[in-house]
Amino acid sequence: MRRSVFNEDHEAFRKTIRAFIEAEVVPVYDEWFAAGQAPRDFYYKLGELGVFGIRVPEEYGGAGIESHKYEAVMYEETSRAGVNFGGSGVHVLLGLPYIEMLATDEQKQRFLPKFVSGEEMWALAMTEPGTGSDVAGMKTTAKLSEDGTHYVLNGAKTFITGGVHADRVIVCARTSAPSAEDRRFGISLFAVDTKSEGYSVGRKLDKLGLKTSDTAELAFVDVKVPVEDLLGEENKGFGYLGKNLASERWGIAFGAYAQAKAAVRFAQQYVQERTVFGKPVASFQNTKFELAACQAEVDAAEAVVDRALEALDAGELTPAEAASAKLFATEVAHRVIDKCLQLHGGYGFMNEYPIARLYADNRVNRIYGGTSEVMKMIIAKDMGL
Fold first, then answer.
1. Where do the Acyl-CoA oxidase/dehydrogenase middle domain residues begin and end (predicted)?
2. Using CA atoms, how far apart are residues 18 and 11, in angstroms rounded to an integer?
3. Terminus-to-terminus CA distance in the chain, angstroms?
4. In the annotation, is 8 catalytic?
5. Structure pTM?
6. Given pLDDT bands bounded at 50, 70 and 90, which one contains residue 1?
7. What's the sign of the alpha-carbon dihedral 251, 252, 256, 262?
8. How many angstroms separate the CA atoms of 163 and 90, rounded?
9. Among residues 71, 76, 128, 248, which one is catalytic?
10. How confident is the model at residue 132 (pLDDT cuts 50, 70, 90)?
11. In angstroms, rounded to a whole number, what is the distance separating the alpha carbons of residues 43 and 29?
12. What is the pLDDT of residues 173-232, one digit of tens each?
């Protein structure tokens, strides 16, 4: 099936990324896995490679290419190699859209050159202990000082991807109480410097999967945030979050599809090499049928995520379309990766095999960025139900 989503420039970038992964990531990936995070200096290498600046305007040190297709190539190539780039994914997928959409010219001049180089890694702190998907229920507060020069930030966040290494975190906090008409009113966004007094990183969370991606608890005790670090307008944060959820959900959808595609490749290689009862596992009809069904599902998911990618680049991806793509691709990946692990037999349960890590990494796709149940609610609402 011919794909039209990528051109020669994307394929040239693919070769560069594939060579970079083989040279810089694969040889040390087991060390990252054991440590539970990628090393901080790896992000400088990504900065030197130029991957953080693809969508950043040239005046701030980027390439100025308004497209998510290079990110899509990276999803495919990291999955193909059975690795990931630690917490750096959220730097671009979650950090950059808020800077692009909300930052003033002065803020962009301060933030973007360091963003591009990897000198300042960004993360997004939305989720709180006890609130989960209910963003409007957050308790973290930011109160303007009497002299109007800074906000005083108090509260806690959890499940913050990239939270250990982050140099700046976009923190969602209440600057006003919710209104009677709208409980989502009163949330604001701040670009918080993690070196600020009173800011602390709690536990690095021990996750089922995504072992090389640092995920942390954060705490804020009377953290002074300069008014110059407010992103956008006060009390309008929930609306800003909603606008960027479509691109986040596309990213999760595309990443899940790439994992499913990689799982089929790993299983195909394994069953051709492994013999039982004197014959290759690939020679059994059950193996052929299972992998054929997996390939058909991956083909369908590819069509869905490619269509969503084109819509995203055109600025036309709706929240319901993003939810639909995420729901479909993540559920496909769940089924496909499970079947591909089964074809590995006992070795599929061993972490030294990429399929085992892929199985664990994939599970969160149906939870973060909005659970599958939340996706169904969004789609149903769009259907007028």
1. 123-223
2. 10
3. 35
4. no
5. 0.94
6. low
7. positive
8. 10
9. 248
10. low
11. 14
12. 999 998 888 888 999 999 999 999 999 999 888 999 999 988 999 999 999 999 999 999
